[in-house]
């Protein structure tokens, strides 16, 4: 007879296994966040990020991306479940763990009256490590005047400053909430290059939310789709392109194709003129289209629309 493990048991069993293998940067177990009148914004999420992974988090407005990032970082207490960062409870970080974390919130509550340079000096005092050369390089490359008050910087400059602040102490885990929303295309490209460098140089684990799919398409990030409080799908982009197909045709044909090719149905719309299912097949094992069955690969935007409806 098997027994379902309670979340607490599962979390501690997982913690033991993590300790044996080296704890991952992020491990969420049975995570649940409810808001008044809105239960299940995060709905029993089990998720982990591997060291050095760079994950783009996608989801519609209100899907819960900010809530998820805040909860993963221990800034918001979940109604159920647990988050561990490098094996430590996210809600009880010690100074050493704090120094390993970097966060760029969606609306940076930067100190408006501080001059940009003073703000960085202030944050510098909190961290055992601070890369002055990186800060100087980014401040001049990104054109942020050090002597201007933060409140007088443009939105894009404030966002850049927030990114500089988060990169300066060389965190091992970096979470960014729509970090490029106010950046121009050149700034976005430069930011992405910086992220990639950070990962290549230091093996930083990065999780960032974004709505700008074209940026993701340019870099081979791992993509995670948040929908209905869970990660509906996560894979590197090339794997998504190779393995995920939209099938359209009569339900019987769709089921037959899934059965014959061992597909995993990710979403299905059976109503309407032509039912269509989004299905993941092992590489090289996709059904072929015929007169009764349409079978097509999707670009990131179409995949987003199908998965996050
Ligand atoms: N403090 C709060 N109190 C009540 N409801 C909240 C609170 N914060 C978020 N919510 C609700 O939880 C849901 C998820 O919000 P969240 O900001 O996490 O979404 P998001 O995916 O980051 O959205 P966006 O893409 O628009 O930034 C929304 O419906 C929002 O109204």
TrEMBL record:
SUPFAM superfamilies listed in its UniProt record: P-loop containing nucleoside triphosphate hydrolases (SSF52540)
Keywords annotated in UniProt: ATP-binding, Cell membrane, Membrane, Nucleotide-binding
Ranges where the ABC transporter domain occurs: 26-253
InterPro entries: AAA+_ATPase, ABC_transporter-like_ATP-bd, ABC_transporter-like_CS, P-loop_NTPase
Pfam families in the record: ABC_tran
Any GO molecular function: ATP hydrolysis activity
Keyword Protease part of the UniProt annotation: no
PROSITE patterns named in the record: ABC_TRANSPORTER_1, ABC_TRANSPORTER_2
Highest taxon above the source species: Bacteria
Listed name of the protein: ABC transporter ATP-binding protein
